[in-house]
Amino acid sequence: MNKLPTISTFVNQVRHFAHHHQLFTPRGKYIVALSGGADSVSLLLVLKHLESEFDITLEAAHCNFHLRGDESLRDEQFCQQLCRRLHVPLHLVHFDTHAYADLHHVSIEMAARDLRYAYFEQLRRDIHAHDICVAHHRDDSVETLLLNLVRGTGLRGLRGIQPRNAHIIRPLLSHSRQQIEQYLDALGESYVTDSTNLHNDVKRNKIRLNIIPLLRELNPSASQSIFETSLRVTEALKIFDDAIQHAIADVTTPPRGCTLGGALVGGALVSSAPTKQLGTTPSHPLIISVPRLKQQPSPEYTLHEILSPRGFTSAQIEQIYTSLDTNPTGKIITSCSHELAFDRSTLILQPKTPTPLVRPMHIPETGTYVLSDNLKLKVETEECGDRYEPSRTADCASLDASDIKFPLTLRHIQPGDRFVPFGMTGTKLLSDYLTDRKKNIFEKRAQLVLTDAQQRILWLVGERTDNRFRITPHTQQALRLTLQ
Question: Residue ranges of the domains in the chain?
Answer without folding.
Answer: 4-237, 253-351, 361-483
